[in-house]
Amino acid sequence: MNNYFTGHWESDSSIMLSILQDLTLYGGQERAGTKFFIKNGTKSTKPISCKFGTTFRCMIGKRKRTYCEIEKGYLTKLREEEPELYHIFKEFSDFHFSDFKWTDITINYMPQSTSMKLHFDKINVGDSVLCAFGDYEGGNTFIENREKHKYDIHDARLEPLIFNGAEKRHFVNIVKKGNRFSLVFYNSLKKF
C-alpha cells in the first residue's frame, strides 16, 4: 500500500521536498558532516548534514541512544524521533531505484550561498544513490571522472544519481539562489 508517492519522478520529488522542509534536522554532535560545507555569505543559514540510520556512538549528549539489535547499531536521533520516515524513504526508493538496497540515509540541507567541499564518502560501501530537491540555482554535483581527468556535472533533481562516493571524489558547487535538499541512500561501513 503506497501512502505518499505516485511513481512519477517530478511529483514525488515535490512531495519529498515538502516532507524534508518540515523536518527538524540535527547537526553538530549528531552529524559531523558539516565540516564538508563552505558558507560563502554572512546572511545565509547554516547548512546541515543529518544521518538517518544507525551509528556506533552509544551516547547523544548525556543520554544513551537506543540500540537496534537487527541493525547492530544505535539509532540516530532523527531515526529514533521520526521512525515513520523509514517507511517514507523506503516507499520512495522502491518506486525510483527498487534494485538498490540501503542501510542509511544522509539528509543534506544547503541554503543559498553554501557549497560542499571536494571529498570522499569514507564510511560508504559501494554505490550510493543521490537525489536532490528544491527550486534552486547552482548546487550541481561534480563527480570525478578519472578517465578524462575532469569532473562530470550532474543535476541530481532530474533523476536518481548512482555513483561510488567512496572511490570517486565529488563536491557540490555554490547554491546561488534558493535552498537545496538532498538525500544520499547508502550502505555504511559498520564498525560496531
Could you explain how this protein is built, in words?
The chain has helices spanning 9-21, 77-81, 85-96; strands at 37-39, 48-52, 54-55, 59-60, 63-64, 67-68, 73-75, 104-110, 114-119, 128-133, 137-138, 141-145, 150-154, 161-163, 170-172, 175-177, 180-186. It has 192 residues and is an alpha+beta fold. The longest helix has 13 residues, at 9-21. It is globular, with a radius of gyration of 16 Å. Strands 1-9-15-12-13 form a five-stranded antiparallel sheet, with no helix packed on it. Strands 2-8-17-10-14 form a five-stranded antiparallel sheet. It has a three-stranded antiparallel sheet with strand order 3-7-6.
Structural class of the helices, strands and pairings? Answer: alpha+beta
Low-confidence region ranges: 29-34
Major beta-sheet overview:
5 strands, antiparallel
Instruction: Give the overall shape.
Output: globular
The oligomerization state is single chain
Question: Termini separation (Å)?
Answer: 34 Å
What Rg do the Cα atoms give? 16 Å
Please tally the β strands and state the result. 17
Query: What's the order of the H and E elements?
Result: HEEEEEEEHHEEEEEEEEEE
Number of distinct helices: 3
Let me know the average pLDDT.
89
Helical percent range?
A: 10-25%
Strand proportion, as a percent range, falls in 25-35%
Question: Which features would summarize this protein structure in a list?
Answer:
single chain; 192 residues; alpha+beta; five-stranded antiparallel β-sheet; 3 helices; 16% helix; 34% strand
